[in-house]
């Protein structure tokens, strides 16, 4: 008991050095466990979402970019396809196509233009407010709503992907009608709206002021100015219209939900031609390859972590040795007062034990925090 008291008193007196040692020890103990938790959580989240997404249709190119953009709403920007690709799937009668337009964002969240079938496919439910019904409305993912402090009745304004992507893009104020229930998936970090609303943002659709007006005396005048709306209201919604052929409207990708296994196999066969500008991918296969590469890197990361941990332990040991060397006069005084070598050893062991207990407690707190917030952290990581 006396050894513990003296050890604690010394650690408190040298609180700065003790704090550094505790923090370093906590990191040595917690980093390997936190890394494994996040890796396993990312693997599970990636594979689970990919496995429930049968097929993705998009422009030919990087299959990984296509899957990450369409399934996880990442920053990857594959080449768009036209709505004609979606119409082909509809006409085949083999699967349900779900359009996705993910070229825009707001307040750091991806704006996902889609159809109501997406919510049924992902089993998303509205926890507060109501579902989108007309042009210009949006529902927020749970994490977006919490981060921004927004809910039904509030608004958000769209933004292009970057400052150099302004051609034809009109910032649009979206009316928030609801907040989705949390799912622990990338859907929590997205803002959902009708795909036609994203076409309005892209400049394909717009509304106009009345070009003919009448004054109080009944005189009719023509207004030469045509105003592009930045807000869709009940008063101007009927004036919104789209230009060009509907089959040429852009989509980032199309989620494909085959009606049965045979239908999915037939559809995949129709897009095997490398000359076809459109490709169909199987997210589960693409993500499986990605996870394999991640865990190969993780093996190297474990080895690096081990080396750094050994070096850090050596540094801690050297720090304690030097500290005890500087306490030589103090130990000599204790010996003259009758303390034997065993007492001094007990004092050293007690100090090391206290440092270890404090470091282990802090490490346990860090690991527990990561465990409790694992889904949120994984969703955030996947959204980067």
Strand content range: 15-25%
Coarse morphology: elongated
Q: Could you tell me how far the N terminus lies from the C terminus, measured between alpha carbons in angstroms?
A: 51 Å
- Average predicted local confidence, pLDDT: 81
Low-confidence stretches: 220-229
| Largest sheet geometry | 10 strands, mixed
How many alpha or pi helices? 12
- Specify the helix fraction band: 40-55%
Number of DSSP strand runs: 16
SSE order, as H and E?
HHEHEHEEHEEHEEEHEEEEEEHEHHHH
What is the SS-derived class?
alpha+beta
What is the alpha-carbon Rg in Å?
A: 30 Å
Structure description:
Helix content is 51%, strand content 18%. It has helices at 2-13, 15-51, 63-72, 83-92, 116-122, 142-148, 195-201, 261-269, 283-326, 328-336, 341-372, 374-383; strands at 55-59, 81-82, 95-106, 109-114, 126-129, 137-140, 155-157, 173-180, 190-194, 205-206, 212-214, 220-222, 241-242, 250-251, 253-258, 278-281. Strands 1, 3, 4, 5, 6, 7, 8, 9, 15 and 16 form a ten-stranded mixed sheet that branches. Strands 2-14 form a two-stranded antiparallel sheet. A two-stranded antiparallel ribbon has the order 10-13. Strand 11 and strand 12 (220-222) form a beta hairpin. The longest helix has 44 residues, at 283-326.
